Design the sequence.
């Protein structure tokens, strides 16, 4: 079986890969899916970060992505080749910052799970003046709202590589109002390149 | 394909610091779905965010602002 770490626009240096034509999957041959424990999760993140550092465009795979063999993986890549190419283009030369939004007053209305609630929250987030300072950095945005106050939302921002220090400085300088922020990064673009964005 | 049990995720969250919870969120909840397999159910994702909320808010990251 193959454990898939990421899809790349170029061949990885140290890992075996499957694919061609600018869409390569970095893989490791395994006997079974790794156990879900702290060391496995940290290993996955560490290897994805290494791959990100040596490639121009990377789409990290979700933890636990197992494919039967090379042929099966090659089919998965080729049947969605145009999707992978578009997704790789979007993240090329870019990385991700993650912004946790805390507060109690911007809670979305109840009973609007899914689309409407998320759209409502996205609209409310756009009304927060302190977020305006981040707009110049943002090339793409993905928002997930949470029903576990005081954590209101996670906002995933795709920024150009090398701008993370400026982004973090802008977050640090943002006035603290009804909502508060905690930013981490840079991350490989974990939140970008999903099926539904094709 | 092997499914990963939510109980294991819960055990990780209960003992995690903020940096590990960020990794859990990105590595388990995000990332490209290549095979169509579901690693964690929705209930487990909610559990992860409950853990994130508790740990991130109790840490000095927010209070330091």
Sequence:
């Amino acid at each position: 079986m193959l454990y898939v770490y990421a899809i790349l626009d170029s061949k990885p240096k140290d890992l075996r890969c499957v694919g061609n034509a600018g869409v390569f999957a970095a893989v490791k041959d395994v006997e079974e899916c790794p156990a879900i424990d702290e060391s496995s999760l940290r290993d996955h993140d560490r290897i994805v970060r290494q791959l990100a550092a040596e490639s121009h465009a990377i789409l990290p795979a979700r933890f636990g992505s197992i494919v039967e063999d090379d042929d099966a993986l090659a089919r998965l890549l080729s049947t969605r080749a145009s999707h992978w190419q578009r997704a790789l283009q979007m993240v090329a030369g870019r990385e991700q910052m993650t912004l946790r939004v805390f507060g109690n007053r911007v809670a979305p209305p109840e009973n609007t799970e899914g689309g409407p609630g998320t759209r409502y929250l996205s609209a409310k987030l756009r009304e927060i003046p302190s977020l305006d300072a981040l707009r110049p950095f943002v090339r793409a945005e993905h928002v997930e709202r949470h029903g576990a106050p005081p954590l209101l939302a996670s906002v995933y921002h795709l920024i150009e590589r090398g701008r993370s220090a400026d982004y973090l400085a802008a977050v640090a300088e943002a006035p603290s109002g009804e909502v508060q922020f905690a930013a981490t990064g840079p991350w490989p673009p974990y939140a970008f390149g999903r099926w539904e964005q094709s | 394909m092997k499914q990963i049990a939510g109980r294991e995720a819960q055990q990780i969250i209960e003992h995690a610091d903020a940096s590990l919870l960020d990794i859990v969120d990105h590595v388990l909840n995000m990332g490209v779905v290549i095979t169509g397999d579901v690693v964690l159910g929705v209930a487990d994702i909610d559990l992860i965010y409950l853990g994130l909320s508790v740990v991130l808010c109790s840490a000095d990251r927010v209070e330091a602002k």
Notes: Chain A has a mean pLDDT of 86. DSSP finds five helices and nine strands in chain A. The beta strands of chain A are 2-8, 16-20, 23-29, 58-60, 66-67, 94-103, 140-148, 151-160, 179-187.
